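Structure first, sequence second, as always.
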């Protein structure tokens, strides 16, 4: 079984994906880490994030599970990842890697922005997770504060809106719900309520007991 979760930044898709993977004992891939790792490689090398040739080389040089997640989190890395993710050659370089993960015999849970539309259009379960920009900015601000980062809510909200615009209007694999995806709005849901809703969707779509 392949479970695909897509959605904008801070919608809760990553947390839900991890919880679903644990519930069904499936491997999980946060595909956003691939783009963050690509951006981190460029930044560490002193390269511009919009250098398409270098960005493609960095993407092709990634080892799938070789990530220091702590080094890839934070507001700066989220913005940087959004820039490199808009480069078609980067997305193409990471395509096979993501598909190989998704098609392993036991199944998988993947979250990102083009899982149900591009990476795994054959997924049995597709969930598009969303929430209002204000709710997502508040969640991200709390997350950053817990990491010890200085938080300016207005700046975080502005970042969220810029990322939404960039992700939704890029030429390659724009952020959009798959035609057969189930919309899950988490604006007024805590994680437990969102998880229950997601489990219900899986049970209905895949015919499994949640």
């Amino acid at each position: 079984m392949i479970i695909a979760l897509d959605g904008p930044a801070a919608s809760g898709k990553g947390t839900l994906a991890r919880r679903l993977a644990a519930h069904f004992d499936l491997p999980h891939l946060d595909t956003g880490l691939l783009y963050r790792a690509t951006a981190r490689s460029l930044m560490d090398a002193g390269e511009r994030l919009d250098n398409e040739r270098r960005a493609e080389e960095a993407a092709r040089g990634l080892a799938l599970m070789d990530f220091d997640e702590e080094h890839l989190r934070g507001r700066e890395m989220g913005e940087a990842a959004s820039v490199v993710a808009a480069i078609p050659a980067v997305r193409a370089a990471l395509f096979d890697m993501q598909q190989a993960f998704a098609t392993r015999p036991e199944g998988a849970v993947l979250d990102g922005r083009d899982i149900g539309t591009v990476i795994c259009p054959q997924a049995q379960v597709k969930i598009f997770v969303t929430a209002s920009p204000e709710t997502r900015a508040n969640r991200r601000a709390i997350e950053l504060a817990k990491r010890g980062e200085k938080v300016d809510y207005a700046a975080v909200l502005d970042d969220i809106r810029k990322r939404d615009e960039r992700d939704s209007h890029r030429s390659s694999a724009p952020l959009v719900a798959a035609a057969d995806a189930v919309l899950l709005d988490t604006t007024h849901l805590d994680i437990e309520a969102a998880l229950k809703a997601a489990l219900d969707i899986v049970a209905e779509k895949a015919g499994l007991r949640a």
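Margin note: The chain has a mean pLDDT of 92.
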